[in-house]
Write a structure and sequence with these properties.
Keywords: Membrane, Transmembrane, Transmembrane helix. With 243 residues, this protein is of the alpha+beta class. It has two domains: 55 residues, no CATH class; 178 residues, Endonuclease, Chain A (2-Layer Sandwich), CATH 3.30.870. The protein is built from nine helices and eight strands. It is elongated. It starts with a helix and ends with a strand. The mean pLDDT is 76.
């Protein structure tokens, strides 16, 4: 029933129902034309072969950041109406180029929304700074310095004169993952969830999963995780759209 509620594999269920109906008719001795019987047989075989082929070519869900090179997320940002981002530091994702895409994309729309959450600003002596610095074997910048950079960037974005809604907030702890959701409420929306691990060789070696509405409960679960994070934000900055 969950598959039907989530509209997953409806073609498979429909074909199964038809097969059972015609199987029952044959079992009770219904006189079906031979051409109809053969058509159903070959249609069923063809459908099964198609399902096998699709399963063999199913989109890879377990990825690293090299996937952003093969499928640039910039393409989705340019056309997005709603963007949710939780990134403990954020400097790797919220580059100048991508922030500009947000300005020209979702924030240029009257119905556009961008929400961003990071960790709260801390100094070099904060234990969270040491924790974040330990995530990489070869960091190019201390986490505290990166946080100051991203805070300045978010404050600047909150002053933009744009049509969409922009807001950002902070949380005081690191849950060990990050989320980027593009148009999460739309049928074609998706969410990338990245797991930080410990002592990664580089940022690019971190694992992330790509989720869509077809993933049902797990897609919903990670969207709710972002909503929970948003509800606990501290010192959120907001922007009032231009009229």
């Amino acid at each position: 029933m969950d598959d039907i509620k989530q509209k997953r594999s409806l073609d498979l269920y429909a074909t199964t129902v038809v097969a059972f109906i015609f199987g029952a008719l044959l079992l009770i001795g219904a006189d079906l034309p031979d051409n109809l019987r053969w058509s159903l047989l070959f249609a069923g075989i063809g459908f099964l072969l198609l399902r096998v082929a699709l399963a063999a070519h199913q989109e890879e869900r377990f990825l690293d950041r090299s996937d952003y090179d093969r499928h640039p997320i910039s393409d989705a940002l340019r056309t997005a109406r709603e963007v949710w981002i939780f990134a403990p530091v954020g400097t790797n994702f919220l580059t100048n180029e991508r922030c500009e895409m947000l300005r020209r994309g979702a924030l240029a729309r009257n119905d556009g929304t961008v929400r961003i959450v990071t960790l709260r600003l801390f100094d070099e002596n904060d234990p969270i700074a040491a924790q974040l610095d330990a995530l990489l074997d070869h960091p190019v910048q201390a986490a505290a310095a990166s946080m100051r950079e991203i805070r300045n960037r978010l404050e600047a974005m909150s002053r933009w004169q744009v049509s969409g809604d922009f807001a950002y907030g902070e949380i005081p702890f690191n849950p060990g993952f990050s989320i980027v959701a593009i148009d999460p409420q739309s049928p074609r929306g998706f969410a990338n969830v990245e797991f930080h691990g410990f002592r990664n060789d580089t940022i690019g070696s971190r694992m992330h999963i790509h989720l869509t509405r077809a993933d049902g409960q797990w897609f919903k679960y990670w969207l709710e995780q972002f909503e929970e994070i948003w509800r606990t934000t501290q010192s959120a900055g907001t922007h009032t759209p231009i009229e």
